[in-house]
Amino acid sequence: MEQQRAPAGESAAGAPWYLEVMDARIPWQSGTHERRVENFYSRGAEDFGDCHGGYLNFGLWESGFSYLQAAENLVTHLGAWGGLSHDSRLLDVGCGFGAQDILLARKFGPAQITGLDVTWPHVRAARHRARVAGLSLEVRFQHGSATELEFPDGSFTHVLSIEGVVHFNTRERFLQQASRVLRPGGVLLLADYALKRKPVRRMDKLFVSATQKGWQIPAENVDTLGSYREKVARSGFTQVEVVSAGDRTIPQYFEEQTGGAHLASMLRIRGALAAAGGLAIDWFAWQAWKRGQLDYVLVRAVKR
Ligand SMILES: C[S@@+](CC[C@H](N)C(=O)[O-])C[C@H]1O[C@@H](n2cnc3c(N)ncnc32)[C@H](O)[C@@H]1O
């Protein structure tokens, strides 16, 4: 699927050529997966502001944590696990509102962070966040799709994706792209979802298919922990670690999401229909976790 960008917008002086041409919006064609995901995430995005600190992740929880502490703990954990340092060039795919990239820039000071997202209002909000933080040159954001990365081979030392991969069409196509744009020895870091076991019983199938359809997840992305590991390994990675973290993410996040204060914010920001839809998806995910089926995984692998 070849997509044309709208005429180029503003770009910062001194940026590499491939960033200069990638500043503009891509009008996703009707009927494409990208268009459906962009529509899904655009609702209320302009009003999201600093709700949840701009994070959309489930968090990595410790006892007594607030949502913001859990969200930042997840991001910091991944950055440290990947060994981010001053020499790093990081690509963050499915960067959302960019809050995680500002945090990573401040904590680890990498040479460059490029955030990419399929949802245009997310890209705009992320650019605004970088401007306010005074980090517009070090942290750049662009519109694009995870499965058609426009960067030259070996451009990055790290590729990160926090809770984006499950949507990508497909997970495996993204892994191949991530492998291509990483230099040899580069590190892949993911926070994602996988199944502990294949859905065999009728109820299991119902929960998996409701979560998949409501959340814009391609059927090919319904992986078990085992098939997940195999996909990463056959996409050009070695030292593949897939760590189960469901117990530290899903139940605490669901509890926080269903608290009165957060529900009221979602109603105001996303409207009644979308807020109810979001809650239903969270409920199905929580039920699937309680049934011992859904897991949340942290993944680290090294480009061969
Ligand atoms: C659950 S949100 C997580 C956002 C952010 N990583 C965070 O944790 O706050 C998933 C993000 O992935 C983005 N996304 C989904 N499909 C994508 C694709 N094909 N290419 C790039 N981004 C995509 C969505 O627009 C959304 O911003």
Secondary-structure element order, as H and E?
A: HHHHEHEHEEHEHHEHHHE
Number of domains: 1
Hetero groups in this structure are: S-adenosylmethionine
Low-confidence sequence ranges: 8-13
The tally of helices reads: 12
| CATH topology call | Rossmann fold
Question: Could you explain how this protein is built, in words?
Answer:
The protein is an alpha/beta fold and 304 residues long. The protein has a single domain (17-303), classed as Rossmann fold, CATH 3.40.50.150. It has helices spanning 17-20, 33-42, 45-48, 67-81, 99-108, 120-132, 171-181, 202-214, 225-234, 250-257, 260-270, 272-290, and strands spanning 89-93, 112-117, 139-143, 156-162, 182-195, 237-244, 294-303. It has a 7-stranded mixed β-sheet with strand order 3-2-1-4-5-7-6, sandwiched between helices. Helix 5 links the parallel strand 1 and strand 2. Helix 4 (67-81) packs across helix 5, helix 8 (202-214) packs antiparallel against helix 12 (272-290) and helix 11 (260-270) packs across helix 12 (272-290). It is globular, with a radius of gyration of 18 Å. Residues 8-13 have low confidence and may be disordered. Residues 34, 37, 41, 55-57, 93-96, 100, 116-119, 122, 145-147, 162-164, 167-168 line the site of S-adenosylmethionine.
